[in-house]
Design brief:
The chain is of the alpha/beta class and 181 residues long. 23% of the residues lie in helices and 39% in strands. The chain has four helices and twelve strands. β4, α2 and β5 form a beta-alpha-beta unit.
Length: 181
C-alpha cells in the first residue's frame, strides 16, 4: 500500500505513505494548496471550539492555512509561532520541538506583539496532525510563558496512540504503519 484513504468533513483524499524511520511509515497530510480540504476541515473543527476561546495559536508552516480558514469561520484571531527569530519580533518567547516529519530539533518563537495580545487570554492550540505531541508541547510552553491559558487543543488528525490524544478535538485518527520484517 502506497497510499492511505481518508475522509475529512466529506472530502476524500489518498494520503501518501512516507517512511520516517526504518520499518515505520506514516500517512502524510499536506493541506498546503488544498483549499477544498482546508475549508471543509476548518468548518468542521471550528464547530467544536469552546465558546470561551479568544485566540487560535498554530506553528509555522503547514497548519497556517487551517488557522486562517478557522479564523474566518469562527471570527477568532490567529497567531503563528515562527520557526526562526527575526529582529522585528522583539522580546520573543521560544521553545524547542521535535517534529516526526523533520526528525531534528526545531525552535518555535512567539513575537513580542503576539505575546502581549494573548496575555491573560484563552487560547486553542491548533495543528494539522498531532503525532508525537512535541510541537503541541512547545506551543503549550510558549503560550503558558506568555500568561495565556490553553483551553483546547485541536487538529485535523491525531496519529499513533489513539488513547494519548483522547482530549484533542479532531476530525479523525491516522495509524502508524509498522513493517513486520
Amino acid at each position: 500500500m502506497d497510499h492511505y484513504p481518508v475522509e475529512i468533513a466529506g472530502v476524500h483524499r489518498e494520503l501518501r505513505l512516507m517512511e520516517v524511520a526504518p520499518g515505520v511509515r506514516i500517512a502524510v497530510l499536506n493541506i498546503l494548496g488544498d483549499t477544498e480540504l482546508t475549508q471543509a476541515a476548518a468548518q468542521a473543527l471550528a464547530s467544536q471550539l469552546p465558546s470561551t476561546a479568544d485566540f487560535l495559536v498554530t506553528a509555522e508552516a503547514k497548519s497556517i492555512p487551517l488557522a486562517y480558514a478557522m479564523s474566518v469561520v469562527s471570527g477568532l484571531p490567529y497567531i503563528v509561532l515562527r520557526k526562526s527569530y527575526k529582529p522585528y519580533m522583539g522580546d520573543a518567547l521560544s521553545a524547542e520541538t521535535l517534529s516526526i516529519t523533520t526528525n531534528k530539533p526545531q525552535m518555535l518563537y512567539l513575537d513580542e506583539k503576539d505575546r502581549l495580545a494573548i496575555q491573560g487570554k484563552h487560547v486553542v492550540l491548533l495543528d494539522d496532525v498531532i503525532s508525537t505531541g512535541s510541537t503541541l508541547q512547545g506551543m503549550r510552553l510558549i503560550v503558558q510563558k506568555a500568561g495565556a491559558e490553553v483551553i483546547a487543543e485541536a487538529a485535523i488528525f491525531t496519529e499513533g496512540d489513539r488513547a494519548k490524544w483522547s482530549g484533542v478535538l479532531s476530525l479523525g485518527h491516522l495509524p502508524v504503519f509498522i513493517s513486520q520484517s
